[in-house]
Design goal:
CATH architecture: 3-Layer(aba) Sandwich
Shape: globular
Number of domains: 1
Low-confidence stretches: none
Largest sheet: 6 strands, mixed
Radius of gyration: 15 Å
CATH topology: Rossmann fold
Distance between the termini: 31 Å
Number of strands: 6
Helix content: 25-40%
Order of helices and strands: HEHEEEHEHEH
Structural class: alpha/beta
Length: 145
Amino acid sequence: MRPDGFRAAGLLIAAAAHGVGAQSVGGPVMAAIPLACAAIAVAEGDDLVGFFVRKERKEHGLQRWVEGPVEAGTSCLVVEDTVTTGGSTVAAIERIREEGLEIRGALCVVDRLAGGGEAIAEAARAPFRALVTIDEIYPDRPDRA
């Protein structure tokens, strides 16, 4: 949540989206919003949009699970800030599929290496990658064997 980090994350995420041919970036509501905003803010041109997946459907309005300028057939990169088990991202992927979006890949900022990356790749049926792992940023953590 600092300008340099926001810009750097945006550049990396936008590049990853373009690399897999995604027209949009998004994912679980809390984690994906700043990441999608960062990516669309730095993307070249107007070819990348953001979206997010609600935890619960609103009981009024359009009652959509997926919010943003996307529709069935829109290609996407699913984004998440930190992945542990991958549960919230896998749930979001299910909603994304229900809305008919085409998942081209999944990306997280930090993978805690607890199996979540594999779960996300399986659910997405697309490549998963992390910008960094917990081992890279905290190699001497106490829980490491």
